[in-house]
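Q: Structure for this?
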Amino acid sequence: MALLEFDDVSVTYRSRGADIPAVRGVTLSVNAGESLGLAGESGCGKTTLTSTVLRMQPKSAKVTGEIRLNGDNILDMTWGQVRALRWAEASIVFQGAMHALNPVQKIGDQLSEPILLHSKVSKKDADRRVGELLEMVGLPARRAEAYPHQLSGGQKQRVMIAMALACGPQLIIADEPTTALDVMVQAQVLNVLQGLVKELNVGMVFISHDLSVLSSTCDRIAVMYAGKIIEQGPAADVFDHPQHPYAGALAGAFPRIGDTRYRYSPSGLPGDPPFPGDLPSGCTFHPRCPVAVDRCSTTEPHLVKHASHETACLLVGSEIA
Amino acid sequence: MALLTETPARTPSSAAGGWSNPSVRYAIKRTGAALSTFIFVLIFNFFLFRILPGDPVALYTRGRNVDPESIRALEAKLHRPIGQQFLEYVKNPFTGNGPSVKYNASVWEVIAPALWPTLLLVGTATLIATIVGVWLGIRSGWSRGERFDVVSTNTTLVLYSMPEFWFGMIMLIVFAVGIGPIPGMFPTGGLSDPGVNTSTPAGWLNVAWHLFLPVTTLAVIYLAEYSLIMRASIIEERGQDYVQTARAKGLMDKMVRREHAVPNALLPTMTLVFLNLGFVVGGAITIEYVYSIHGLGSLTVDALQGPDVPLLQALFLLFSGAVIFANLVADLLYGYFDPRVRT
Amino acid sequence: MTMTQPAIDDPNAASLGARDVVKARRKASRQRFAASFRQNRSGMLGLTMLLTFIAVAIAAFFIPASSLDVTQVTADPFLPPSLQWPLGTDDSGRSVLLLVAKGAQISLLVGFAATMLSMFIGTSVGIVSGHYRGMTGGVLDRFTDWFLVIPYLPLAIVLATVLGRSLLNIIIVIGVTSWPGTARLIRAQTMSVTARPYLERSKALGAGNLHQMWKHVLPNVMPLVLANTTLAVSISILSETTLSFLGLGDPTAISWGSILEQGFSAGAISQGAWWYLAAPGICVVLTVLAFNLIGRAFEDILDPRQETA
């Protein structure tokens, strides 16, 4: 049984009388000790999808399908059960740690808060655990006395990671944890996350728009576009041999030095990602696709197994035009 | 088990003491600003009545019969070199302008007994208004858009649009005089019934009964503003990322509000509330007038009818000084409570 | 080598095009704004109330002077509301309804005029102090802060006493005591506008300070100025009412505040003549509320906060 399973999950917002599908029929799974990279541009639904794991989606959003954590459907749980599992079984490292910490509370208090909430330990024990957590991410234990504004961006991000670990969850969702950081710190933070998966047997969902980062950090990658998974498979395969034209463009946007393939293939895509309330017909990618054919505007492709991974493209796999 | 090596970090600078302590620097800066404002007020107060064209003596004696001897003395006084007058003024702002024209006593003698009634009235009203207003603002802001919020916001908007003295008069008519079937239950003015010894518990009760209507009037008007400010503040905090983090940690809604949103929301609210202290002073003046309470406000209204210039100037200085001081206290408190300033 | 490039040589051609584009853009955004306002229920309610009072003030021009002359009225004083006297009579027998209608004129006039003055001073000081960061800006900012701290009513009382009682003076007093709040706000907005790149481009093109402030900063600060103005009018009306009530207004003018002063001094409270005090007061409340609602509607449109779960 997988640690986390999305089973045909759809999330629809209701805004000004219109239904906006942010996530459309996603099926994914993550096992313990495994890291799944979730790639895609802004607005493709990655954050919305993962917010459902802790039932953090906005009140106006309707969720269908099943989201199972250790076999239990989160959507069926009572609020009390949801609050109990928040942080204790699954936690999130939020995007933009700059403002995700309470500016008037000490770091140590913010770290010990979930510990004291979810387990019956004394304040002293909680403080000791906070010290351990800080050291785990490479910060001295006395930083617990500091306030968020006294830390640098990289340090704040590491505090967020430490916080996500506080209650020893089985699943961690890291939402663009390195986007706002400079390259050197990015490398350090990625090392931390990779180490966690291996040493603590934690399951991780790593969200990023940077495919190259995902390819070197994760076991598997799933690429999302307009609320759907359009390609998924082993990380290296998806990055080195993308099948879907969008995945190819995404991979090409972050070239590796010496990559001759990049030098000869066009990079960048025209246009913007579609607004979820106004999706194109057929394959939602067809207006921007460099290799689209007529059929692409009328028929919506499904995920089909081809070679080592699955792709949703009419031109790939058994549905060759 | 360290997965990362430590990179050099900023040490919290509150560890340093003395002049380099940002807390101390902030306190000094704010005190300096308050002093400079007060000096500005002193100068402004002094020159205001003398830079106008025309005879300053006429201003002092407008609409009154003053005997020629006093006029001559006044003239002699006011026609001295401005520099000399200013120095005398600075030496003692309360007497440097001469005695109160109306009461024929030194200005300070007139003001001193009026201090306590005003403090009692304004202090009580502000205390109640702050407690109720902040609570109301938090409740309505946190449940924004729901019934409680809609009702309370609309009510406070209407209260906020009301002249406080008018509300006071209506209260008087309804509760003190009585209209239709409702009998008058409260006194129509004054701080206590004549002849009552206000230092006994029975006396206190009498004072409280007299103060009930004016304090309620002021408190209701003040709390409308405080509640609107607090509401806006809480709404702002509610949308912040750290609130989302708190929710994700599994905290109950009430805890998220109490432990995270409210402490952050109180800071700008505190600042805005103190910034609007002038509003509190204005209310005191008109309500004391309507309810015939012999405090500083009543004195001001008396003084402007003369006009009793020395008294008016002294009162202006007193009011301004009080507000400046209160603002300074607010700044210092803010510096203490906001860790971003303290460290 | 001669080449004719008429389009580029003609200086008017290019600038005409640019100006037209700007005009069209501004017109479109004004229309969008009006459409959004129409959808705002409380804003429309405020606008309706305001227009009603303006209509009353205009209608008041038709009140014969004899009806408001204490020497010419024939009714008994302190009559409660009835069919003949819908809002009762005052202490001299004048119809309170007519008094209140007449009072609308001065109350609204002073409210608007004082606000114009205060906005003019406040916006100028705000833009200048926000634009000139150095010495000038710093001094102006200090000056604004000083003024801001001084409590409003004592200052207004002192000024009104010194200047004397007249309509013009009351407008001046209110205008001069309320500009700091606006200046502060405009200054903050100016500083954020100044930080935007297009102003740097304009500077690079050689635009002088005045040009920048007039053509670039002002239009961008205008929406906030608009929202602030409506709120400022509500404060001005409250101020005029208070000052008139304390006896500092024009003794010959009838305003809602002066009616209240008259009623209070004539002992309406002890007489139980609630209509005498309720009518002008309710007018003040409704008018001020109208401006507050409109102002809040403007703020909502210009700076909408999305409802988050």
